[in-house]
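*** Protein under study ***
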Amino acid sequence: MKALIYVDLSALRPIVDGQWHRAHLSRVPAPGEQIVLLCGRTAPAVFESIAARTMAGIPTCCWECDLVYRRQCGIAVYQQ
């Protein structure tokens, strides 16, 4: 018997230095494996419970990752 856990890789948002980022992942990374974020930063994968996330405060968006994502998806980007 197996306990299957399905993960939507497109929904994963790695948090680095209080910001959530986007990354193109082809599989769930192994602990310690370097992840390349859309903004160009890299960071090792670490897994924690959701309780640890809420204790660290509310993460904000990495606008560089968001801009790359929007351009890749053909979403209009407006300058202010």
